[in-house]
Write a sequence for this structure.
């Protein structure tokens, strides 16, 4: 395993890649990122990687498509992988509901399951689960609602904070 760090106005974040170069996990900016990395991925080697540079560009407010990034989905349930692959192409500045995400994955009646699948997203931002909202509000986010709002604001998506 190896990792790369990226900087943003929120702090330092990290990406972890497998030896074959597939993205395994994204850590959103956090003050204790290197300690977290060493604990979860002991022996991982720091390296300059394009994925980290792309995230740094994204957090600087620039449009970044993240196309061509290979993602390691091993260990994830099949429906989770379907949902993650389905929402990967939601354009910047646009959002869908959990029901729409479920429909995109092939099961319109599985909105709750889609939400559960999104909570397992190992690569937030790269797979834009923050662009999936509840019908009447923001819904959840694995890194917390504060992060969901930050990401949507970076993308210039205005959200009614009363939701």
């Amino acid at each position: 395993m190896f990792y790369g760090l990226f900087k943003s106005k929120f702090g330092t974040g990290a990406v972890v890649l497998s030896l074959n170069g597939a993205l395994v996990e994204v850590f959103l900016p956090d003050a204790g990122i290197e300690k977290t990395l060493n604990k979860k991925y002991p022996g991982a080697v720091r390296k300059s990687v394009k994925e980290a540079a792309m995230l740094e560009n994204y957090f600087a407010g620039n449009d970044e498509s993240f196309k061509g990034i290979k993602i390691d989905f091993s260990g994830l349930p099949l429906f989770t992988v379907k949902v993650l692959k389905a929402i990967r192409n939601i354009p910047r500045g646009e959002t869908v509901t959990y029901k729409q995400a479920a429909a995109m994955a092939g099961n319109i009646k599985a909105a709750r399951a889609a939400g559960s699948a999104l909570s397992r997203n190992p690569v937030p931002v790269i797979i834009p689960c923050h662009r999936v909202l509840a019908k009447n509000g923001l819904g959840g986010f694995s890194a917390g609602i504060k992060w969901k709002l930050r990401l949507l604001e970076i993308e210039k998506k205005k959200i009614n904070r009363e939701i």
Notes: The beta strands are 2-8, 11-17, 23-27, 45-46, 96-97, 132-133. The mean pLDDT is 93. Residues 2-59 form one domain.
